[in-house]
Amino acid sequence: MKIAEFFARNAFSPDIDTDALLAEFDRQMDAGLAGGKSSLAMIPAYVDADRAVKTDTPINVLDAGGTNLRVATVRFDKAGKAKIEGLRKCAMPGTDGTSLSAEAFFDRIAEVLEPVAGNAKDVGFCFSYPTEITPALDGRLMRWTKQVDAPGVVGKMIGSGVAAAVKRRLGRKPAVRVLNDTVATLLAGKSVGISRQYASYVGFILGTGTNIAYIERNARIGKVKRLDRERTMVINIESGNFNGGPASAFDEAVDAATSDPGVGRFEKMISGRYMGDLGLVVLQRAAEAGLFSKRAAAGIAALAALTTKDFDDFVANPFTQGGAFDAVRFTDNDRRALLAICEPVFARAARLAAANIAAAVIRCGEGRDPLHPVCVTIDGSTYYRTRTGFFKSRVEQGLRDILGARGIHFETTFVEDAPVVGAAVAGLIAQEA
Ligand code: GLC
């Protein structure tokens, strides 16, 4: 069987109908803001990005990503530059194979916070999971993503849960303000980009999971009553759950094997938690279809798991040693087949990521004036570290194609430790309010 036929049989294509995808993103964004049926939760962050940040005031920060839990103390100097102290990280609770109760989960977070607790009164908590935020910046976990195993936490208030656990431990209850990592990244971009006079800001994450936040006019947020219609608010789209992507037979297989089938369909096509799983499915199906030599096919069939890093390393350089593929005996023709089969998986992910970012930039309605572009701050290991197929540059190319054709001006930026900086911004803005 030829590779083209193999892809067609599995309804896989690296090419996507970008216009249709953008239209579907926009339709579901509208529906989500109106409170209608949508795979996009469109969560109001209750952060007004226009507020000034208090300087010379320390704030503690927690950052629960997909893989790591980090803690630090942050303060902004008079010039608005963030100073991060005592940054430490450990594994995200609930990701080491043992299931945690809600109490154990919150206790673990309080334990991690303890060494810095004396540095500042309050906490900004960058919590990178779908969480409904209250006007006081507490947040109720809607569901876990990224395969975290702590089922009792679903439905609980995260900020109050951590505050109560800190109280049990230290006898003192901090205010814990919760925000999403995309919102934090957007705010971090704003805090360093202020002198450029951008028209608007977007925060995109492509790491263990994927998601994006942008600034919306309150007048368009129909599901929240009594908002000042003249102002704006940051919206966490939860785009990882978008269900309008081009699902192939490979994607169906990956989804079916997760703990949350049907959820996070877009994320399972492009993010670091799942790209390795996708690669393994594609390779094993290709081996079954006879696209590799017998010996290589047997080795591929015997692989029990594949991390995104091993997958990417090997497709970027099919002579890599020291990873999952050590056990597979490839001929050079097998290596050529591997490139032809796997590079399109990364190419598709790059196109989908570009479409996702473009959808948010188009939505914000700004960037017509070249003097005031839209600032897209990007964070996440998968975006910056994926080597195959010029990944990052391919996403940027996609953005130039899509947004350039529409006369929209934008810039991409990177802010060191954006989730930590942004959580500090949000925590300090809230303290002022
Ligand atoms: C997942 C989470 C989302 C987060 C994203 C990136 O999609 O649900 O809240 O922003 O990963 O970390």
CATH class of the largest domain: Alpha Beta
Q: State the share of residues found in helices, binned by percent.
A: 25-40%
**Within the CATH hierarchy, at the fold level, what is the topology of the largest domain?**
Hexokinase, domain 1
Per DSSP, what share of the residues sits in E-state strands of 2 or more residues? 15-25%
- Specify Rg, calculated over alpha carbons: 22 Å
Assembly type: single chain
Count all strands and give the number. 13
Give me the strand/helix succession. Answer: HHEEEEHEEEHEHEEEHHHHHHEHHEH
How many separate domains? 2
The DSSP helix count reads 14
Mean pLDDT: 96
- From the N-terminal CA to the C-terminal CA, the straight-line distance is 64 Å
Instruction: Please give the largest β-sheet.
Output: 6 strands, mixed
Can you walk through the features of this model?
With 433 residues, the protein is of the alpha/beta class. The protein has two domains: 1-45 and 193-415, Hexokinase, domain 1 (3-Layer(aba) Sandwich); 59-179, ATPase, nucleotide binding domain (Nucleotidyltransferase, domain 5). It is built from 14 helices and 13 strands. The protein has helices spanning 3-9, 18-34, 102-113, 158-170, 181-193, 249-256, 267-270, 275-288, 294-301, 308-316, 332-364, 381-385, 391-405, 418-432, and strands spanning 43-44, 59-64, 68-76, 82-91, 123-127, 131-133, 139-141, 176-179, 200-206, 210-217, 232-236, 374-379, 410-413. The strands form three sheets. It has a six-stranded mixed β-sheet with strand order 1-11-10-9-12-13, sandwiched between helices. Strand 6 (131-133) and strand 7 (139-141) form a beta hairpin. Helix 8 (275-288) crosses helix 10 (308-316). The mean pLDDT is 96. The structure holds alpha-D-glucopyranose. Residues 66, 128-130, 145, 180-182, 205, 207, 209-211, 238, 240, 267 line the site of alpha-D-glucopyranose. Residues 66, 128-130, 145, 180-182, 205, 207, 209-211, 238, 240, 267 line the site of alpha-D-glucopyranose (GLC).
